[in-house]
């Protein structure tokens, strides 16, 4: 059962308890958020409401009904000064308003109930919807020049692989309802820059006739919100705890290219 804004509006946190009460599911997965990173700089109150106040309300509503909440956070809780993959225990220091609001959300979820789970994701893309990978593809098909920053490093993660991992993790907790939850990093293995990712995805789709991506520095592409220069997440903890395998970003990208031609089978990642 998936609820949209009509039944579960993050900007109306006081109504979220009623939405939980209406269905009383075994698990609630909150995949909704205000993800407009640049807009959050000018509209922090709304970003805070959707990304911190609403998750807090949802976490309390779930706790009061004995329901486990799965919530998503972001690599943007880090300042990017590290040069080795971030652990869950590393200090947070968001460099933008979106990251501050998301950090507020993850803290309130985990404070509400130690059985809740927060998964920090990074650089999420998919074969559907709107995302960086599909934008690059569109630009290439339109014959537009493709200039992409090459001094921000992260781990592009296919939404399908996140969904497959979460399905396994939910199964784990349904079998072991008393187990505590916690904070986990859930991203692809390995790292690249946005420019490296763009070039790889174009190569994957267009092969030898792929257009060339022009790498540019972040200073040549100014945005209202700063981004961390390095936000690679170590996914050791989630793999160890749940016995799941998170493929390298290149393998996840190959799966994305397959999915462009139609949905693949669940559990494929
Ligand atoms: N994308 C990334 O690279 C990335 C990286 C790290 C973490 N994350 C986290 O991963 C999660 C999913 O992100 P995403 O990339 O899938 O985001 P997305 O594509 O922007 O989707 C966000 C979803 O939230 C819904 N939403 C927005 N405002 C809402 C409101 N007021 N009430 C109810 N629903 C609302 C949107 O609904 P509509 O369809 O109606 O607009 C949309 O379905 C978020 O927690 C995000 O912070 C994402």
Automatic annotation (TrEMBL):
Superkingdom, natural source: Bacteria
Pathway listed: Carbohydrate biosynthesis; dTDP-L-rhamnose biosynthesis
GO molecular function: dTDP-4-dehydrorhamnose reductase activity
Keyword set, alphabetical order: NADP, Oxidoreductase
Keyword Disulfide bond: no
InterPro entries associated with the record: dTDP_dehydrorham_reduct (IPR005913), NAD(P)-bd_dom_sf (IPR036291), RmlD-like-bd (IPR029903)
One GO cellular component, as annotated: cytosol
Biological-process GO terms, alphabetical: dTDP-rhamnose biosynthetic process
All copies of domain RmlD-like substrate binding, residue ranges: 2-258
UniProt keyword Coiled coil present: no
EC annotation from Swiss-Prot or TrEMBL: 1.1.1.133
CDD domains from the UniProt entry: dTDP_HR_like_SDR_e
PANTHER family: DTDP-4-DEHYDRORHAMNOSE REDUCTASE (PTHR10491), METHIONINE ADENOSYLTRANSFERASE 2 SUBUNIT BETA (PTHR10491:SF4)
Its biological purpose: Catalyzes the reduction of dTDP-6-deoxy-L-lyxo-4-hexulose to yield dTDP-L-rhamnose.
Family, as annotated: Belongs to the dTDP-4-dehydrorhamnose reductase family.
NCBIfam families named in the record: rmlD
Name of this protein: dTDP-4-dehydrorhamnose reductase
Organism: Fimbriimonas ginsengisoli Gsoil 348
Lineage: Bacteria, Bacillati, Armatimonadota, Fimbriimonadia, Fimbriimonadales
